[in-house]
Design a protein that fits this description.
Bound molecules: iron/sulfur cluster
Number of helices: 6
Strand order of the largest sheet: 1-2
Order of helices and strands: HHHHHEEH
Distance between the termini: 23 Å
Shape: globular
Largest sheet: 2 strands, antiparallel
Length: 115
């Protein structure tokens, strides 16, 4: 991952995520390529791997607050352009896990990026 610009509004969420990562290595740290891949299989595998991540909630809070539009964050493919291309996932409905699929409702997740 290159240098990440953290918008001012997302700094508290970024700090919470950073604290949560102090003593935990998430799946995306072991194989970051899948989280930034343009291969549909990689993207879907990355999104599914997020389900088991211990920092999924603060990751999603950060990504939603920051309006991330690249890569997979917290089980959500953040690339709007991919969702505008019906051929990207072979014409099948994309099955990326949404944060709301496996977390209880939270006001912090109501700004989830649209797919
Ligand atoms: S939830 Fe966030 S930190 Fe965890 S594997 Fe997914 S993208 Fe990485």
């Amino acid at each position: 991952m290159g240098t990440l610009h953290v918008p001012k509004a997302a700094r508290p969420a970024w700090e919470r995520l950073s604290l949560a990562l102090l003593d935990y290595e998430p799946p995306c740290a072991a194989d970051p390529g899948a989280w930034w891949s343009t291969d549909p299989a990689d993207v879907e595998a990355a999104a599914k791997a997020c389900r088991h991540c211990q920092v999924l909630r603060p990751c999603g809070e950060y990504a939603n607050t920051a309006g991330e539009r690249h890569g997979v964050w917290a089980g959500v493919d953040r690339e709007p352009s991919r969702h505008a291309d019906p051929a990207f996932f072979g014409g099948k409905k994309y099955s990326t896990v949404r944060v709301s699929d496996h977390l209880p409702p939270s006001k912090n997740h109501q700004r989830e990026a649209p797919l």
